[in-house]
Every structure is written in C-alpha cells, then in structure tokens.
Amino acid sequence: MDASEPDFQKIAYAVRVPQYEPVSSSGGVFMLLAERILSDGGVVFGAAFDESLKLRHVRINDMSMLGCLRGSKYVQSDMNGVYRQVEDELSESKKVLFSGTPCQVAGLKKFLGKDYPELLTLDLACHGVPSPEVWRRYVDEKGDGLVHVNFRDKSCGWRKYHMTYTYKDRIEKVRFDKDPYMQLFLQNVSLRPSCYDCAFRNGGNCSDITLGDFWAIADVCPDMNDGRGVSSVIVNTPKGKSFTSELPEPVEVRYEDAVRSNGGFFTTFEVPAARNDFFAGLDSARNLKKHITRFVKTKSLFREIYEKLHTVMASIKRRILS
Ligand SMILES: Cc1cc2nc3c(=O)[nH]c(=O)nc-3n(C[C@H](O)[C@H](O)[C@H](O)COP(=O)(O)OP(=O)(O)OC[C@H]3O[C@@H](n4cnc5c(N)ncnc54)[C@H](O)[C@@H]3O)c2cc1C
C-alpha cells in the first residue's frame, strides 16, 4: 500500500471493456490501462511469447505491438534483465505500467527499493504458474509448425474456454478441461514450488491494482451475466484509484463479492501427492501427454452430467429469484 495513505480501503469493481473483452481473457481491463500509459508516452512491461513459444517479459512502447501481451499464458515467464529495464525507464521519468503475477510485482518492488510516482503496478489473481520446462516439452511434442497458442479462446464462451493451437496450416481447439496441459495446471501438479507457499497474493505485494475473472458475477451483478468475460478489479492504493476514471461503467461491489468463488485471489494450494512422481519421471518420459495422463484425474461421465445439471438448476433458481 502507498506509504502516504496506510489506511486506504480496497475498492472493488465489476468491469467490462467492450472493445477489448472479446480478445482478452477476462474483461479486457489490462488493455485499457496499457493503452492509457502508452498514449501518455510511457512504456508497458508484460508477458509475451517469442517465436519459439517461450514466455518472456518484454517492453512495449508502441500501440501496434501491445496485442502480444494480451491474454493469460499459463506458464512462468522469463524475467531476465527486466527489472533493470524498468528502473532505467523510471530513471528517465517515463511512465511505466508493469503487469505480472503477484510475486513478479513483489520482486520488482524489492529490486527498485523505493516508490516511483510514474510506476503503476498491476498484478493478476493467480492460481500459480506452471513450470516452463513442462511447457517447453509440451510445445515440442505438439510438433512443427505450431506458431501460436491461445489459452483462453472465448469463442464458445468465457466459462467454456478452449485452448487453441494455431499451426501454419491448421487450427486445433481443445476444451480447457480436456487439454492435458491445462488439466495438469488446474489440478496444481505442474506449479512452481514457490506457488504452494505464496506470500504475495491478496495484496501481499502492494500492487496498485489486481485483476481477475469475476466468476461470481451471476450472483453479484446478474445483469452482466451474459456469458461474456467480466473482470474483477481490486484497487489497492490511491495511485490505483487515480486510474479508475478510465474504466467504462464500473459497477462498485463489495470486496468479498469480487473475490468470491476464485481461489486465485487468496488460496494457496496444497502440494498434490502426484507432484513429486510427476516431476521425478519427467526426464525419462518419452511421451509427455501419456506421462501427464498418469497423474491427472479425469471426470467420470456421471460427474460431468451431475455438474451440468447443477449448473442448469442454479441458473433456473437465479431466474426465479430475480
Ligand atoms: C498464470 C496465471 C494464473 C491466473 N490465475 C487466475 C485465477 O486463479 N483467478 C483469476 O480470476 N484470474 C487468474 N488469472 C488472471 C486472468 O486470467 C486475467 O489475466 C486477468 O483477469 C486479466 O484479464 P484482462 O482481460 O484484463 O487482460 P488480459 O489481456 O487477458 O491479460 C493480459 C495480462 O496478463 C499478463 N500475463 C499473461 N500471462 C502471464 C504470465 N504467465 N505471467 C505474468 N503475466 C502474464 C500479460 O502481461 C498482460 O498484462 C491468471 C493469469 C495467469 C497468467
């Protein structure tokens, strides 16, 4: 929190940015804030894939390049040299937006050692980040010609998102809960060791703004529950608050509602029993996909039907109550 206002109370909003929501993971708020910083002559740091689909934090100073930062990529990004680049920009009094996981923002703050008025920090509600080695192996196994991966393709809806693998000559779409890489991630098997003992979620890193998916939107703002993405925006500092005038039609909500049904804001997961064996066998596994299937739980047909019915009943109940 800003030292200048230690008693600042967090403010929470439900927000959708119509022009960016369809191509962003949640409500598109990141793009809006990044656009604002760039139009003020500043620079933006965030995570982008390079040509070999390795994820790195990069510096963007041009609106036409901003698209590469858009969208959640579920792997740890390489931060090599980035904190120094941020410091260089700030020492030239440039405006900087740094966006990353809670621990990456905490690392930057520790590196800088002091507050810079020109620096806006934005972190994400974070489930944890998977191992880059597992991602490299997965990409290798996906074969030649893979040029892009979208972890959150929302063309079939925000909640039923797909992984989309774009090859030079074809596109492969897999529902998130059927994709082996995503199953491993969502069942917490492939997370970095530090993710199981995270001290930086839930404002622990003093970021200015935290963004996440507003999964409880159906209960909190039924009018916005139309299957398209909505962001939870948590404003943690007065500096973060000064950017809220940028948000289109923000709906103020209780903090507890904005983080409801979303472990990424505050939950630290237990190390699953399968994790040690999964990594112990990783080097010798010839086929990663097969190796993964030994360590993830798949849903039975009964469970799938039960969950579907549960969702339908909840939606009927909501309609009757409203
Ligand atoms: C690893 C990971 C875990 C997440 N877990 C949750 C969760 O449990 N609950 C939840 O509500 N939201 C989670 N999110 C955040 C959520 O998916 C959206 O990214 C966030 O709500 C912002 O959405 P947006 O539509 O505003 O912007 P988008 O355009 O979707 O977000 C892009 C921003 O995310 C950054 N980013 C993308 N991938 C990474 C990465 N690997 N490391 C660091 N920064 C990255 C980009 O630099 C950019 O700033 C997670 C994101 C990541 C990357």
Question: Could you describe the 3D structure shown?
Answer:
With 322 residues, the chain is α/β, with parallel strands linked by helices. It has one domain. The chain contains 11 helices and 11 strands. It has helices at residues 29-39, 82-91, 102-112, 132-142, 180-186, 217-220, 238-241, 255-258, 274-280, 288-293, 301-321, and strands at residues 11-15, 43-49, 55-60, 96-100, 119-124, 146-153, 162-167, 171-175, 209-213, 231-235, 251-253. The strands form 2 sheets. The protein has an 8-stranded mixed sheet, with helices on both faces. Strand 4, helix 3 (102-112) and strand 5 (119-124) form a beta-alpha-beta unit. Helix 2 crosses helix 3. The longest helix has 21 residues, at 301-321. Bound molecules: flavin-adenine dinucleotide (FAD). Flavin-adenine dinucleotide (FAD) binds at residues 24-31, 46-47, 55, 69-75, 77, 99-101, 124-127, 129, 211-213, 231, 262-264.
